[in-house]
UniProtKB/TrEMBL annotation, chains A, B, C, D:
Top class in the EC scheme: transferase
SUPFAM superfamilies, per database record: PLP-dependent transferases (SSF53383)
Organism listed in the record: Sphagnum troendelagicum
Keyword line: Aminotransferase, Pyridoxal phosphate, Transferase
A UniProt-annotated Pfam family: Aminotran_5
Protein name: alanine--glyoxylate transaminase
Domain of life of the native organism: Eukaryota
EC number: 2.6.1.44
Domain Aminotransferase class V, chain residue ranges per copy: 16-326
Length: 402, 402, 402, 402
């Protein structure tokens, strides 16, 4: 049953939830099973182990919570920090804002470093603050790797260099919700202490898993962290990991089989390196289209360009919400609206997850049509052509078909 | 399990099998059931009755065979004709050729009216032959409504006018495999005696149902037709229709539930009139793209343009098969090859079934990329832009979303 | 892919997760969709509203959390209570124990009323404590409606009578994880303030939804409750309910479509009253089988009999875990083990969710075989016969088939 | 959407269509794909090759027709015989009757050897006829391996011995619709010339594939056989086998992926030998139950007992159709009715396909309840107990779980 049926496929170009490919739908098409049977730990261990590859870690411990990204945030914070702890966090868009709001409600002492929406984290200011913090009163640095509302990717390697340069022991907590599994992520190399993502983004699964990886240092911190947590407590998971039954409460077998299929697609069939290259290719193509349309990115500098979502600024006389509406009403194209202070000013094209070149080109053609509908005089085909030109050069043969 | 996995969706633009939309996949996602239970006739009767709407008939009787289009052909011919019967048939492409081949093997005396591949049926010659047939020795006229290999749609109303003009009693048999459910089809108005289609085309189902509609005259003819048939015999169906158990042998419940879902999509959700308009819109858009690319249609005159498949002629130094290959290998785009005597000379873009504007535009963008790969100097975006321009004008708001 | 494949169906008779019927699997067999589209609130509102029927409430507000029962517990407690609040809770088995453990970790002052595992809540003691609490220092009474580990159902109407008799204003919080949707539950009549369940039990869905209903009094209490909560905060939901976008973070569309299908099965197709009667019938049949086997229920008195799970005590020389193991290894039958202090002493037969008489009889036959395997001299067919005798009398014709 | 919904699983115990297990449903849960892509021959060749294992042949050539068993019959007959050919066929029940009817309509000269319904083929008479046929005017012997209407399995090895003993060159054609993949079948050893089955029986697939295997001798005979065939002509398949594109017309990709999954379950996961042993075990258990009920098998001698279907004779004052009706109306149990001359006199329990012990025991319990409903004084549990006793002895541990 569909509430607003339309012929053909929905073109899902919000920056998550993303398209669920058939192999994942197939893997999930199953009844429940007994999570206490011997079969279950086999499945569980395989995904708990393999999911670490998309985080770029062998050293960390992963926790797969039956929750969303918001729950994963809460798990990350409460397991390593104590109420009153001073933390630095960057406000660069709606999702960093929401995380900061959560931090405050969890009673941390948040030093918010704000940037324009469209800019990346102000790392110069971070450097200054860390350098000045001789007492190491700053317990954590929290950063969103990819700000989904503005299409801004922060440079985590640089954050690590700043922490190391200041010889500062603060924990590094990273929201990788719209990056991990799509963008290069090196948890071990960047010495990220807690990283997290959600299932409905790069993994192309339904919503329902909040995946958190904790470095050995984070696990150590968890032992003394005083924030209250029960459902989100890593300690319960660690206890059941030891027991071999893995789960402190009933997991979703469907989601775990789905995760297994997703990891197989990413790690075995396509290869993580190729997945990341594909996201870069699609991101570049999208940006070239935006340029050809004569529009500007919300992202203020190329160094912050996001390969998973592109936020496009519309001329001031146009309401970006109208573009999103007409795209859905006429072309069955789902775009992202502008959120909060950039509502009406930007629309967003998500290009992450299990997605390919022609799907993107179809969507870009749809954006052009929607732009025309709201009165923006785009040259039809212009963005598509620019994207095509890039893709022609950048797209390799499909590995399995060479 | 996929043999040649690739990220993202397969872009299925062969002229059948077509994309199976999620509501149909959902309807079919079920175990077997007892076809002798009281539930089964309810389902069966509903589809046997409603499927007639896409044939444009209330007078005819429908038969849903567990077979393919080839089987439906055989059922159509053997139920109304006798060995040695003289019939006229038009050879205008690969599928009419295959049907004629079947006619010959079934021992009919086939008078083949051949046209160039790319031309429609030579109706002038038909007129002449019928007019000359004072003895009414011609028992049937067999015509493919839409020749899938060349993208040619024949004018069935004109055929009827010729038959009526000649006051000729020959039965009119129509292959509507790639037309019925997508193109306007008026079985009653055109006094078609036998019309048939297959499930994997406009109905967007898996292969497996060959659907045949027989006019009252055809049913009458069936009583005396001497062609041998058992599996494909209408009489067995008619017997079980009367008994209320409908099926002379075990049907596929999954396919019937799928057909029910397909008919709901076409007749209730979108509306048959809108479905046909959508096919016309997508057909026009495709032809405009071909023109913009500087290429020619295989279809020789606009009156024969097909709204379900477009066959594109490539320059003589290019092998159209290479376009199809690279589209699949690099862009996960499935196009139709040229068949038989036009192999290497044309490729085909199917645009039928449950499909929308942006899916088509993505595919057209893919064709442009494939053309470039084989050295044809297409201007990227040119065909997309031409198609977009048409679609912008011709596409209505999605009914459920107004 | 299955880790321990076996021919035929798995006989899933753990007391949750339960069998997911085909209509729910079909409803969930879909890709992601944009949760910000106009379609989403339609679906969301329908389930948020209709789910209240299985709670027996029109007055309460429902919250559908992407979590498990454990998360629902946390949401229930933290939204209406403050740290240090004195609450009474009943320890009668493993799940009440786990909830109490959570209460303690959440810093409530829990007065635990313990019973034997197999007995119900000690309501006499509750009465005494409430009567003595002139100061109304007790802020909440927390009770598990149906203790899944022992097969004990508590009498909630009696609890309400005691509270009312004592004119005590304590909030009444009820874990209905293995009861709501299967047992009679009258939230409004019993003046339950917070009731909760999980999707993988009576609703026959995958794990992933923790559903909490809050009475007007509970909502009022939530305004001043000082327990820290963010992910589980009702206030965020209430804010988005008002805005009409419903969800403070991304929901699982698949689970919501599944919930819609589940509610349709329960409320429309079978009827809640019939669902409850069916559970009673299956529970009685199971208990008659246990008696015929010469075994004892863990449940100590008939008044506490559970219609969703039966815990069976095995003779002391037998390890109940061996029964569970051999049932799975030889007959693909999944039974529940004994938990914690009754490990090895009881095994459990879950009989809740979308399940019918012959499924149960097959499982009872399997239990008999497993009992024989471990050396218990059960008469084959004895329990089945006892259950059959009851079912023959108690089972009505299937409503749709009369 | 279900027409007569009922809680819990349908207990499908008709002798086909059979239960489709989840791995097959998952494999089939997919959109269409281009059958001309390079992926398709890979899949096609794998199933064309592997399906021969369930026929017990390496020498034969297999043809997978998009049809039903009835179509497979027609394909078998028309490819190796010519009109007027004298053939011997055995009439022992409804399905042999229907096949004979088809033979007559196809203009063969059928010498029908009739037996009581419940008896096997009269092989003594066959011997006599063959021995007397010095001229070798008998071109074929057609036999149903397992007569689905009466639960009678014929001894094919004996048939071969008789043919060999008489040094008679008649072709041996076998209907294995309800046997192949469930009963021991040795096409090569028994020198069967044409054997056939349908997908909805032992293979546990939906209806839609008619699978025919032809021995080298049969292929040779096909070269000169004069029966008219087009859709069912092996020659077209052989042509496309050589070309490597395999299919003369569009196949169902879903059914082929399903067949791949089915063969994997049978050949790899369980093992064909174990599958056959399981069917024997379930058949024996069912027969022991019938005996315990005080009822008689339709099968007249033990040597003809069928391990895929048991036909049970009811006392003369009972209408077996009432048993089938009440089983469906009250217990969601689907049994087979008596067909044709044994209508009302027998009901049938199918026990083939992907099925296990406890599923069968649940169904047997249901049969007992249905028997009581129609007034037959069965002792509840008696048949279940008899079946259990057998299964306890005969059932091995599940291979993957040892």
């Amino acid at each position: 049953m569909d509430y607003y049926p339309a012929p053909g496929r929905n073109h899902l170009f919000v920056p998550g939830p993303t398209n669920v490919p058939e192999p994942i739908l197939r893997a999930m098409n199953r009844s429940n099973e007994d999570h206490r049977s011997p079969a279950f730990p086999k499945l569980s261990k395989s995904v708990i182990e393999d999911v670490k590859q998309i985080f770029g870690t062998t050293a960390a411990t992963s926790f797969i919570f039956p929750t969303t990204g918001t729950g994963a945030w809460e798990s990350a914070l409460t397991n390593v920090l104590s109420p009153g702890d001073k933390i630095i966090s960057f406000l660069i868009g709606q999702f960093s804002l929401l995380w900061i709001d959560q931090m405050k409600r969890l009673n941390f002492d948040v030093d918010v470093i704000e940037s324009d929406w469209g800019a990346g984290a102000d790392l110069a200011l971070l450097k200054k603050k860390l350098s000045a913090d001789y007492a190491h009163s700053i317990k954590g640095v929290c950063i969103v790797h990819n700000e989904t509302s503005t299409g801004v990717t922060n440079d985590l390697a640089a954050v690590r260099r700043i922490l190391d340069g200041a010889r500062h022991p603060a924990l590094l907590l990273v929201d990788g919700v719209s990056s991990i599994g799509a963008l290069d992520f090196q948890m071990d190399e960047w010495k990220v202490d807690v990283a997290l993502t959600g299932s409905q983004k790069a993994l192309s699964l339904p919503t329902g898993l909040g995946i958190v990886c904790a470095s050995p240092r984070a696990l150590e911190a968890a032992k003394t962290a005083k924030s209250l947590r029960v459902f989100f407590d890593w300690a319960d998971y660690l206890k059941f990991y030891k027991l071999g039954s893995i789960w402190p409460y009933t997991p979703s077998s469907q989601m775990l089989y789905g995760l297994r299929a997703s990891l197989d697609l990413i790690l075995k069939e396509e290869g993580l390196h190729n997945v990341i290259a594909r996201h870069h290719r699609l991101g570049e193509a999208t940006r070239k289209a935006v340029h050809a349309w004569g529009l500007k990115l919300c992202t203020q500098k190329a160094e912050w360009n996001s390969d998973t979502v592109t936020a496009v600024v519309v001329p001031s006389h146009i309401d970006s919400g109208d573009i999103v509406k007409i795209a859905w009403k006429k072309y069955n194209l789902s775009l992202g609206v502008g959120l909060n202070k950039i509502a009406g000013k930007v629309f967003r094209i998500g290009h992450l997850g299990n997605l390919n070149e022609l799907q993107l080109l179809g969507a870009l053609a749809g954006v052009e049509l929607a732009l025309r509908e709201v009165g923006y005089p785009v040259t039809l085909g212009s963005g598509v052509a620019a994207a095509q030109a890039h893709l022609q050069r950048a797209t390799p043969l499909i590995t399995s078909r060479i």
